[in-house]
Amino acid sequence: MTQVSACPACLAAPAAQEIARTAAAPTEADLLLSLPGIHCAACIAGVERALLADPRISAARVNLTLKRATVSAAPGTTTDDLVSLLGSAGFEAHALDREALRGSDSDRAGRDLLMRLAVAGFAMMNIMLLSVAVWSGAEGATRDLFHWVSAAIALPTAAFSAQPFFVSAARALRAGRMNMDVPIALAILPALGTSVWETAQSGAHAYFDAAITLTFFLLAGRYLDHRTRAIARSAAQELTALEVPRAWRLTPTGADEEVAVAALRVGDLVRVRPGGRVPVDGVVTEGRSERDRALLTGETLPVPAGPGDSISAGEVNLTGPLVLRATAVGRDSSLHRLADLVAIAESGRSRYTSLADRAARLYAPGVHILAALSFLGWYLATWDLRTATGIAAAVLIITCPCALGLAVPAVTTAASGRLYRRGLLIKDATALERLAEVDTVVFDKTGTLTDGALHPTNLDDLPTNDQRLALALAEGSSHPLARALAAALRNRGVTPATVTDLREIPGEGTEARVNDVTLRLGRAAWVGTAPGTATATWLSDGQQPPRAITFADTVRTGADAAVRGFRDAGLHVVLLSGDAATPVAQLAQRLGISDWQAEARPEAKAARISALAAEGRKVLMVGDGLNDTVALSAAHVSISPVTALDAARATSDIVLLGQSLAPLPAALATARLATRRIRQNFRIASWYNVIAVPLAVAGLCSPLIAALAMSTSSITVSLNALRLKGKA
Questions:
Q1: Is pTM, for the whole model, over 0.70?
Q2: Closest among 275, 264, 270 to 315, alpha carbons compared
Q3: What share of the chain in percent tops pLDDT 90?
Q4: Is 466 an annotated catalytic residue?
Q5: H-helix or E-strand containing 360?
Q6: Which of 76, 116, 133, 172 is deepest in the core (most CB within 10 A)?
Q7: What does the CA dihedral 299, 301, 302, 308 come to, rounded to 10 degrees?
């Protein structure tokens, strides 16, 4: 990416230019671009300035969080024009399909819960202040006044703040089933009803504070649980968003015609320009180039493409124009099949039910039956409706599954905070529980166990003159190896030699002349030698034997510690990679991984994980690329580095925020400890009910005492969870 200064003037320039374009035509089109490489305010300013410099563009807005740009352009302007424009300015850009992105929305549910929680908290504090006066001995008309004021605060607050519980409970009852919200609703409503009755009868006790306190605690637990779930997005949607919305179809006369990808049919001839993403599966009929297949195979190096070669949707054409005949379009393309595999895997995993939900299914019916029997028994024994109602309300309140509902999110929040400080972000509420069950770890190679950035390894063996020649040739190529070589030589202070007739041969390398001598930098066969086992580009001057410039990928920081930590914990470690056998074998030997597989396509990775699962193993998958998304979804639990592609991060349950892999074994230890804390919380909640319920049924607890007991159990569960937060 081109470096851009983040000075105030630079940041203000795009806005000033946009204001100057107030006469935009009403027929302008809004185009969407993906900007995967932007990361700061300077990038935003650079992108917007590059776009607004084009007279066809009247407005450009960049969203750094989503890494997208919305561009208003004159009719006839295409996304290809914008991609080319930004490419020349040093920014990577891709077209985005607006329809594929439709449906994504802001976190309205989270904001709604937070607002209801705030209202409940504010009302709870005010009602508590009024209750203090009553508890201090207020009697008669003063006590009744405080109760009525509490009612005026509590009733509308409960109607608003407890609405999620009421709606969910009503929906469950209409469907003829029970859920955790049914006893919650039946605890809040009797507490309020009994309180209004007591107030109307000038009774000594009202329980408005208990009802609103109960609502506040439950909303807090519900919001914590929501936040752990709301981060996760659909990886299948992310994959679909990478589809190319437009393509260039060749007419019978050989002219290019821009059409929607949906209009393409099998047999159509499609032109793919350099830098463009392939819209369909097909066979090359014209042209030679190189393509980036990392999307589907994880290969780190470009692959040659020429007549007769098959090419898949989603691959990127790097150097030369290609014409291909479509063999699969739409939902039959490789990209769509990959998205479908991810969607299937996600839907299968979504049926996983947490411990709290499983317990609640058994717990809720028992609560209702017990409260009903208590009401009936006390009514038949005393023929006093107030006494029977009060005891039934106390039973519902004291048995309310608030502690049960907090058992998982309280621990998850404490564990998530602990892991966040270690550089790990938990995205799924059940991820810790599933991580604790893991007995096998599967690693991807490039971008996961390695940094994914190739660098030359033998420049010291290359004479100075050869380095100058290599730099001159490398700077004339867009090949990843050439770019890595040029950057390394520039960092060493090498200046390029003066060459003439510099040109790039798509799929082969670069060629130039010096003093009537032809120079070449590229593939082994093209320069006239046999390829070796290492990743390399070859320099030839036609006079000496070709010289290999080898490359290596740096092992990621902490990879040794991560593999060793998992092995020490008794886990089986596997390496699955789409790369060639030699580099995979070398890395496996370097890290001490005996079980490895090279040249593994996405389907092969998923199949291996499925085979491990069939053996009864619980698999943790650690990967970073789109080619890993199916495996990430199929695994029992998954982790992706923050440098991973969006779809991989969306699929994963945990995101590694730092560069080092060393925290991964600690995550496993934390998950196992968190699971023990969750089980302890369930035992606390169970013993609480064993002790408290008989007291309530016996009529020894008023609804207020029941609410205090319920709150005490919830606080105890939370404090037990905080013990995890304090662990080193």
A1: no
A2: 275
A3: 16
A4: no
A5: helix 355-382
A6: 116
A7: -60
CA distances from 536 to 89, 146, 504, 605, 637 (A): 29, 83, 18, 27, 36
Q: What is the mean pLDDT of residues 162-173?
A: 82
Which pairs with CB-CB distance under 8 Å and at least 24 residues apart come from 118-122? 119/157, 119/160, 119/161, 120/157, 120/161, 120/162, 120/212, 120/215, 120/216, 120/219, 121/216
What CA–CA distance (Å, rounded) separates 377 from 383? 10
Rg (CA), the chain: 32
Please tell me the predicted confidence (pLDDT) of residue 245.
Answer: 76
- Integer Cα distance of 450 and 489 in angstroms: 22
- In 3-state terms, what secondary structure has residue 571? coil
Give every CB contact of residue 429 below 8 A, 6+ residues apart in sequence.
225, 228, 229, 354, 408, 409, 412
Tokens 């779809």 belong to residue: 647
pLDDT in tens, 403-416: 666 666 667 667 77
Q: How far is CA 364 from CA 15, 171, 185, in A?
A: 58, 15, 11
First to last CA, the chain: 40
Name the burial class of residue 3, with classes exposed (0-12), middle (13-18) and buried (19+) by CB atoms within 10 angstroms of its CB. exposed
Residue pLDDT, tens place only, 335-358: 776 665 454 444 444 333 345 555
Per DSSP, the three-state class of 313 is: coil
Contact 73, 29 (CB under 8 A): yes
User: With b meaning 16 or more CB within 10 Å and e meaning fewer, what string describes 644-666?
Assistant: bbbbbbbbbbbbbeeebbbbbbb
How far apart (Å, rounded) are the C-alpha atoms in residues 262 and 240? 13
Which two tokens mark 375? 């009401």
366/528: higher pLDDT = 528
Beta-strand ranges (E) seen in 261-393 are 269-272, 281-286, 289-292, 303-305, 310-311, 316-317, 322-328
Residue 250: CB partners within 8 Å, gap ≥ 6?
256, 257, 268, 269, 270, 271, 323
List C-alpha distances in Å: 610 to 52, 90, 522, 563, 626: 50, 42, 40, 22, 18
How high is the mean pLDDT of the chain?
Answer: 77
CB atoms within 10 A of CB 464: 9
Alpha-carbon span 325 to 249, nearest angstrom: 10
Q: What is the pLDDT of residues 577-595, one digit of tens each?
A: 876 677 888 889 989 999 9
Band (pLDDT 50/70/90 cuts) for residue 521 is very high
pLDDT the model gives residue 410: 67
How many whole angstroms from its chain centre is CA 621? 14
Q: Which residues contact 441 (CB under 8 A, 6 or more apart)?
A: 566, 571, 572, 573, 574, 619, 620, 622
**Does residue 685 or residue 551 have the better pLDDT?**
551
Annotated active-site residue in 444, 451, 624, 653:
444
Distance CA 477, CA 259 (A): 31
Q: What is the layout of strands, in order, in the sheet containing 256-260? A: 256-260, 246-250, 269-272, 322-328, 281-286, 310-311
pLDDT on residue 300:
54
Instruction: Note whether 493 and 484 are within 8 A (CB).
Output: no
Which of residues 462 and 7 earns the better pLDDT score?
462
- The model's pLDDT over 95-135, given as tens digits with 9 standing for 90+, comes to 765 544 444 444 677 788 899 999 998 998 888 888 777 77
DSSP state of 626: G
Beta bridge pairs of residue 505: 509
Q: Which residues contact 308 (CB under 8 A, 6 or more apart)?
A: 283, 284
Tens of pLDDT, residues 179-232: 667 767 877 887 788 788 888 878 777 778 878 887 887 787 667 656 644 443
Give the DSSP letter string of 515-542. TTEEEEEE-HHHHTS---SS-EEEEE-S
| Residue 456, number of CB atoms within 10 A of its CB | 23
Helix or strand (DSSP H, E) at 591: helix 581-591
